[in-house]
Amino acid sequence: MYHLKTSIQSKESIKRRNFAFKLLLLIVLDYIYVADTMLRPFLDSHPEVTNLIRALVFLLSSNLIISLGRFAALRFYLKKTREEKVQPNFVIGIDRISWILNVIILLISLMLAVGIRPLEFLTSITIVAAAIAVLTKDYITNIANGLIIMFSDQLEIGDKIHIGKNTGFIRDITLINLILKSETGEIIIVPNSMVLATEIVNYSRNNAHQMIFDFELKNEISLQLNELEEKLKRELKPFSEVVYLKGAQLNIFERKSESSLVRFQFPIKTGEKESESKLRKIVNQSILNLSHEERET
Asked: Does 160-203 carry CATH code 2.30.30.60?
């Protein structure tokens, strides 16, 4: 997270300039709508223009209030948080809430622009609104869960996690999904409702994470599991400074009629990307050699 705080502050300075421009525009529109007596006859004779100005005043004033709340929340957060503890999730959460509120304000403004009274309109479509709420309950649940994830300190953008059958790095947290990128480059999209309802392993919260290799062995193979485990451990010894050899283990996690699914796993220190890549090639090569020996026998 180095320099993240400074980066956020520089982006916020641009938003503050936009805030000043919108405030100036609001003052001009408010003057035209309230204080300009020269335009009053024109506005009285053209109600559609009056509605449009009223909608713009409501849109800008509401947007400025939301922006003020956002600035205050972010300023308070950055002030009390050290550089290395700044979480991009919090900023994303504040931005997502601001976006939702601004969309609601925009819809109300459009109603005002065409002469529709929002309260009367909402009252008249109560049954329709209830039906829409039922149909979109899954989306609403995902949005609520997404906001919970954003403001939680358990998951953070950049963390390496294992959820369900997938392992990857968190690349984004949206209102609907958690976006992961696997080590081989695939994009994995996980619904937010699943994130809060499923057991998650966060490798980035420890000083080590597991490297896992799954492969299949024929049941008639003569090699004993203990021998195979020791053989694979020997391949890891040159990397004893980054690999916790005592944690390496070989287990059968599924038996079939003719073969067994085997998992070899061991903990490795986080941040050792170069060593991890070499280890992956070495272990995979050992597994390929074992498969070749199986075919020969």
From this structure: yes
pTM of the model: 0.52
Predicted confidence at residue 44, as pLDDT, reads 66
Residue 83 reports pLDDT greater than 60 = no
Are the beta carbons of 191 and 174 closer than 8 angstroms? Answer: no
Give all strands of the β-sheet with 259-269 in edge-to-edge order: 208-218, 259-269, 249-255
Contact 250/228 with Cβ under 8 angstroms?
yes
Q: Are 43 and 53 in contact (CB under 8 A)?
A: yes
* Measured distance CA(235)–CA(238) in Å, rounded: 7
Strand partners for 217 = 260
Separation of alpha carbons 260 and 169, rounded Å: 30
**Secondary element (H or E) of residue 102:** helix 88-113
Closest to 211 measured CA to CA, from 186, 243, 171, 163: 243
The kind and range of the H/E element at 173 are: strand 166-173
Residue ranges per domain, the chain?
4-124, 160-203, 206-296
3-state secondary structure of 209: strand
The separation between the first and the last C-alpha atoms of the chain, rounded to the nearest angstrom, is 53
Phi, psi of 211, deg, nearest 5: -100, 130
The fold of 206-296 is: GMP Synthetase; Chain A, domain 3 (3.30.300)
207-262 pLDDT, tens digit each: 566 788 888 887 766 667 788 888 888 888 888 888 888 778 888 877 777 788 88
Q: What is the DSSP letter of 243?
A: B
